[in-house]
Amino acid sequence: xxxxxxxxxxxxxxxxxxxxxxxxxxxxxxxxxxxxxxxxxxxxxxxxxxxxxxxxxxxxxxxxxx
Length: 66
Fold this sequence. Notes:
Blueprint: H1 8-28, H2 31-42, H3 47-58
């Protein structure tokens, strides 16, 4: 199901980018962090929810330009 205001193709692309980011986090993380990321990924009832949780918790905040 597409999000309101964007095409289903754009929604799919956004979802795939999220999955790719989570995989990249796992590849680059220390083993202890990998365990934590996987727990965060499993905690919600859906994969999409897990990806959202991981991205919110583990992605650094973009720095605002001064």
